[in-house]
Amino acid sequence: MEAWFIRSYGGQQVLEFGDVAEPVVGPRDVLVDIRAASVNPIDIRVRRGELRRLLDYRFPLVMGTDLAGVVIATGCDVRGFSVGNEVFARPNRQRIGSFAERIAVHEDEVALKPKSLTFEEAASIPLVGLTSRQAMIDLANLKPGQKVLIHAGAGGVGTFAVQLAKHLGAYVATTASAAKHELVRSLGADEVIDYRSQNFAQIINGYDMVLDTLGGDALIRSFDVLQRGGIVVSVAGPPDIEMTRDWPLPFYVRLAIRAMSWRVRRLAKQRQCRYRFMLMRPSGMQLAEIAALIDASVIRPVIDRIYPFDDVGAAIAYSETGRATGKIVVSRRHSPSPE
């Protein structure tokens, strides 16, 4: 089958297009004919080799982590899906590969596609939806009336997280450029801070949660807005000690992670707050919950551009500019990318 893959880690030049082996369908796998996939920052991190200490990938490695499509075969022990089902999924980290014609995914990581969405819209949802849900509900236990700051509210995770936080009853502040204020307000943001001209840490305080998608200085300053007992959940900062307990990592990697996270752990202790680094985990059950929210018009997808399958390289290059509003999607049914 045709796919976009890498033979080694590196820059944009290592991405190749060509024939790869057909996916192997296990007894509890569904084989999906991929109609659309979406681009995520983790695709770039994987290509660059930034996660090589955590994930032992083998080459050639087919890229892509989100997908929507149609089930064309099922393993012998699959009971929850049938041929012809329209589904969406985020495969587990060892079985990525959605920039391809087909993929085999464990049935526990698949859900029926929201009926109200196209394949392209559905493909934009899994990673950002699961990330937002697991950060706000599983880690932060966000309650009605609490206050949350979401960095980069017009980004892929941000556009979903703002809507979910509002649905959960939170007061939502977010950062965005002035040109994107109207969008994030339409998604439910109560307060919008222009990160180019304003310092969010000098404007807001007493917050219960920060969802950090930026890392670096933005992560460090996030502790300034929390009240005692608050939490920063980051998808871009250094891994934390709690994460290492869930991964079979060598001792020297665990030591390195402790060193990398020392500064933020110290800050959290000083402010009597918590810090958690999060790598989203696949869950078909949670995707089904998200699909129900979408079909109930609680949450809507936000898509910046749709690229044809032949232009995966261009889609990833655009993602690397950091200018996208919402998600970037690759379609096997579509042609030209909007300007």
From TrEMBL:
It comes from the Bacteria. Residues 11-330 form the Enoyl reductase (ER) domain. GO terms for molecular function: oxidoreductase activity; zinc ion binding. SUPFAM superfamilies: GroES-like (SSF50129), NAD(P)-binding Rossmann-fold domains (SSF51735). PROSITE patterns: QOR_ZETA_CRYSTAL. This is NADPH:quinone reductase-like Zn-dependent oxidoreductase. Keywords: Oxidoreductase. It comes from Tahibacter aquaticus. The lineage of its organism: Bacteria, Pseudomonadati, Pseudomonadota, Gammaproteobacteria, Lysobacterales. Pfam families: ADH_N (PF08240), ADH_zinc_N_2 (PF13602).
